[in-house]
Amino acid sequence: MEHFARWHHLRRIRSTATPESPARGPVHSAKQEITETAKFLQWLWETHHRNAASCTQQDADEWRASGPTTRKLIRTFFVFARKTRLNTSVDIGYYTAQSRPTLAQDRRLAWLRELLTGTSESRPYRVAGILLLLYAQPLVRVAALRADAITVDPATGQTYITFGVRPVPVPAPFGDLLLDHLECRPVSGHEILPIGGQIVPR
């Protein structure tokens, strides 16, 4: 991590900064990437007891899928890791920024409330919309999500959903809505939307 911060970011900042072009932008970008990388490496060790060298593709995919879009910033670290031969097994694709405006938090919460309590849409559409708003998953991933990605801890009754490798909790009251949706559908397929599946105990 120190090697990454010093030899990648510091060298780049020094090479681009001039009296006419201050380094404020590159410094801010470097801080963000270093911060997100540090969070990831701490999570990686605490969760899987692995470090940067032993990190797997599944670890990186799990981290990015189960959190905010700022987690995409670990890509620079793995580009550096590949170049230095620290880790050549993890490949994170380039993130393309969306052209649509960012959804304001108050609007997002209002839509969530409407989907959780309203009746203007059918249950499958409500479930799909909440998955998009809560977990920021691409629509293609939501559509392909299998019923066995939803699990219930029999000891606590807590509902979990798995996008990568590690299940993440489903908050109430969405957990109840999600389970109702699974129980009411025909069991003729495996995808959560629009048909199929069953709840699998965790």
From TrEMBL:
Source organism superkingdom: Bacteria
Protein name listed in UniProt: Core-binding (CB) domain-containing protein
Species annotation: Sinomonas terrae
Taxonomic lineage: Bacteria, Bacillati, Actinomycetota, Actinomycetes, Micrococcales
